[in-house]
Amino acid sequence: MPKSDSDQPYHHGALKEAALTAVVARLRRGEDELPTVRELAGEIGVSHRALYRYFADKDALKQAVAGEGFALLAERLPSGSDLNALSLIDGFLSFAFDETSLYRLMFSLRAAALLAEPVPGQQVRRVIALAMQAFEDGAGEEAVRNRVFSAWGLAHGLFDLWRAGALRAATPELAHEFIRTRILESGLVA
Amino acid sequence: MPKSDSDQPYHHGALKEAALTAVVARLRRGEDELPTVRELAGEIGVSHRALYRYFADKDALKQAVAGEGFALLAERLPSGSDLNALSLIDGFLSFAFDETSLYRLMFSLRAAALLAEPVPGQQVRRVIALAMQAFEDGAGEEAVRNRVFSAWGLAHGLFDLWRAGALRAATPELAHEFIRTRILESGLVA
DNA sequence: CTGAAATGTATCCATTGGATACATTATGGA
DNA sequence: TCCATAATGTATCCAATGGATACATTTCAG
Known about the structure:
Two copies of one chain form a homodimer. Chain A is mostly helical and about 190 residues long. Helix content of chain A is about 65%, strand content about 0%. Chain A contains nine helices and no strands. The interface of A and B includes residues 159, 164 and 168 of A. Chain A binds a DNA duplex (30 and 30 nucleotides) through loops.
């Protein structure tokens, strides 16, 4: 008497992808924490232990979600002829303010995992490469890299200070504007 | 038959302070997460529910610890004639690198709690006031405030990128040096 | 067509944050 | 001094959660 009355197939077929998609969707919908493993499994229609076939533990799931986040960020950033230092910064800030929960998760991994782990390392490298291209100005690679990290640090830091509540900006829009102005007056964007 | 064989008094006397001290000590000793309520209570020699007389829930404990963290930071920063923009930045970075776990907790509160909540708001204001003083240079308050937040954002952001693993710096010392250099070349420190 | 490998389920467990009811101690008025 | 009462701490319970083990179902290669 297999399958009984449910027309759900026993094999899901793409459980890993479904799980990541569901988590990302939740975070983008506003939830600011990872769902419990059971909640996530339930949403997909599978027993909670099934997910452990694809993620060693919950931390691995978190890392994978961060990877999706950086991939999404890379897609959202400008490219081709639209790519320059300023457009990159605006794209980055828009992503941070639009997807606050996801953004926060991306940087909340346990110590030093961003580049050290294959996931999300690969996607992080993509973003860095894009930034290096946007900031390229004929100067040596070292100089360009330093400006990239200064700009990244400033944007990330001010955004995080806002998120944590250390900035006075009343609305996300005003905060975005404030950060943008600070970066422009820093001289990092020639 | 009160007290039985234990010579511990039934009343602890300073449970709240003891709890905060114990948590801060643990974080400074290297643990990078908050202990469980039971673990903490056990260390102090009290039942786990006793702590709930002083903290509404675990999040309140976390906020209180963050308050202690900012107070510690304020104490550690230079003052008097030793206070200037550069010495402040060095002090701030030393604190971040020396007390990484505590520092991380201080900025990991739930959304926008830093200034909005009395704890740790009070202590955060102390630090900001000190920074305003260090960056004072005769310009208008608005201009000074903007430079303070730019410098704070840059230091905090680059530190967090390092912590998360986005920077290449091999050791904390090199990371500290890297961040210091980026801030100096930003022109924020006249 | 069949048996091993892959995928998912059922069920169990320890830990954890938290709630409720009760015990112990401290204290301020009579 | 003595006791009612507030303050402080304990005992015990509960549901949720991440995770482990054993087993069932399905797929697929030879």
